[in-house]
Fold:
Amino acid sequence: MWLEESIAVEYSKGAREVVEAVKSVREADEGIWLDRAMVAIADLFPSSAMAFALHRSEVWARERRQQVRTNKAPTVRSGFFLEDWISGAEAAAGAEGTSIVRESHLAKAVAEWAQPLMALGITADGLIARTAEREQAPPLVAGAKRSRIVGAARFEILEGAIAGRDLAELLALDERTGTVERKRSIFNLDPGALADHEQAAVALVNGSAETPVFLIFGQEDDHTVVGQVDHKLIPMKPETIRKCQGRFNDRLQSCLPPVLMKWQEMLSDGKRVWIACMLGRARGSAVRTTTGSYPYRSGESTHLATPELITAWQREPVDRDPESAPVVEDVVVVGSNRTESAVAERRSEDGIDQRQALAALSESIDSFLKSPPDIPTSIRGHTVSDWEPVFGPILEHFGGAIEHVVAAGLRCDGTTLERLARGLRTAFRLSEQRSGLTWIVEAPRLVTRLIGDRLLVDAYCTERWTRISRIGQPAFDSVIGRVPWVLAPEYRHPETLGNKADLAHELSLREIEGHSSLLLQQGVTGANIASAYAAMSLGLALGTVAREDASSGHKGQVAWAFLRGVWSELEHWEDEPDLVNAFAALGGERPEEFRAALQPRLAAIVGAYHSTGYFVDIPTQAEKSIERIARQTTA
Structure:
C-alpha cells in the first residue's frame, strides 16, 4: 500500500485532503472511476486548490460539471488505481526536487488521463495551471511545528497592547517606525482601494512580529486630519463607513492566517479618525494576502518578501506556551502516526475556535443587555433605511462578535459545525426572561438570524449542501411547535424589525453582500449571491410547508419567502439532488416525498403572495424544472 511504501514522502494538508476525498469513492475492486474522483475533489471547494481550479469555467464549465454529477451510470467510463495516481504525483514532486507532494503534483498526475478528462469537459492543462496558481505557497519546512499562541489568547494580547494607548500620539507618529501608515479615506467599495488597504495592513503585520501596528483612516501623509471623507474629500455617510469597515475586516479574515483587528476612533479638531489596530504576526509564521503575496514594511516602504525571508520567518524560535492550543501542521508525513495527530489537532483547534466564538457572542449579548444603546421606541417608514436608527446601534455593538462566529462557522465542518449551530440556536432561544424595550430584548434573535443567513448562503454558493441541514437543524420550541430554528416564524419575523419579514430579508441580504469579499474574489457575483439568498429563502419556505403538512395544527402564512431572482436557481436544483435533499431534511421528509410535493407547495407559496396583493409570475422554464424535480425518484 502507498501509505507503507512512501515513508520518506511528505504530503501538504491540502494534498492529503484531496487524496482522502478520492479514496472515499473507491470501488470494491479498489479501482476509482475518474468522473467520481473529479466530483469528490470538486466538493472540497473552496478550501482545496484543485477544487478551486475545477470550479473555474475555463477548466470545467458548470454545465458539464452538473452533467457529470447527475449521470450516475455513463455508458463510457475511465478509471485508475490509487497507487498509479500516487506514484505519478510523487514522481512529479521528485522532478521538482522536493519531497513534499502538493495539490499541483496531484493535478499533474491526474493529467496523465487527459483524454478521459476532456471527455468529462475538464481541461488538463488548465487544471494544472489554475491549481498551481491557487496554491502559491512558499516552501514549508518538514518536521513538527512548535506551539504558538492562537485564537482568544492573541485577542487578549492585542487588547492589552492597545489598552490605555494615547491615540493622539499615533496621529503624530512617524511612518518610518514601520508600525503606522495613513490613508486619506476608508472608502473601499472599489476593488483597487480594498486591495491597497489589505496590502498596507498585512505589510504592517508582517513587518512587526508580536508588535501592535496601526492603519489610520482620515489622515493625510503630511499628518493633516481630513476625517470621514472619500478620496475626493467628500463627507461619507455613516452606513457607507460601516460597510467599508466590514469589507476591510472581511478581507483581513480571508488572509492566511487571519489578521486580528480592532477598531478605535478619536476626534481631532472636530474630525473623526478611524484606526485599525492590529497585532504583528506571530513568531514562526507569515501572513499571506488573499492574492498570495507576503508584503512587509521596512521603514516607511513596503516590499514583497522573498521565499528565503518567508522561510526564515517560519523558522523563528517560538516560546512554548503549554496552555495554548497546538497549531495544525501544514505538512504531514505519509506512513507515520503524525497523520492522525495532525487531523486530531485540526479538529481540536476547530472545536476551540467554535467555543471561543460562541463565548464571545454570549459575552456580547450580556454586555448589550446590561447597557443597551439608545434607540427610538417607534419608527415611521417602511424601508430598511427608515429602520437604521434601530438596527444600526445593535450591529455596531455586535459587529465583532458576528464576524468571529461567522469566521468560525466558515472554517469548521461536521459535528463542530453542528455544535456551533446549536450554540446559535441557544442564543436565539432567549432562555433568560428580561424586561425592557422589546426591540432591545429581542436583538440577539436578529443578530443570530443574520449569522445564520450568512452561513447558509455561503454553504449554497460554495455547493456544500450538507452544511445547510447542519446549520439549520437544531430544534427550537416555536409558537408553531418544535421545529428547526431556521424554520421558526420568530426567525423570519424578528421583533426588532417590527415583525416585518421583508425588512429582515433586505437587511440580511445587505449584510451578506457587504461581507462576502471572499466569495466575490472567487468569482461569485453580487447577482449570484442575491439569487442564492432567494433560493435559500424558498427552500426554507418549502421546508416550513412540509412541516405544516405533517402537523394537524394551524397552517401559517408563507408569503414571507423571498422570491426576487429565485427562478433561475430552480434549474440548478434539478441538477443538484443533494441540494433538494438538504431542504427535505429540514422539512422532516424523505427526499422523494419532498420532491413529489414541490409543485403544490410552490403553488401555495405563490398563492399566498397573490393574497397579499403582489403578483408573482413563474417562468415556464422554472415550472418545467419543478416538474422534472418532482419526477426524480433517486437522491
User: Anything to note?
Assistant: Confidence is low (pLDDT under 50) at residues 1-7, 137-151, 319-348. Residues 338-370 form the longest helix (33 residues). The chain is about 55% helix and 10% strand. The radius of gyration is 26 Å.
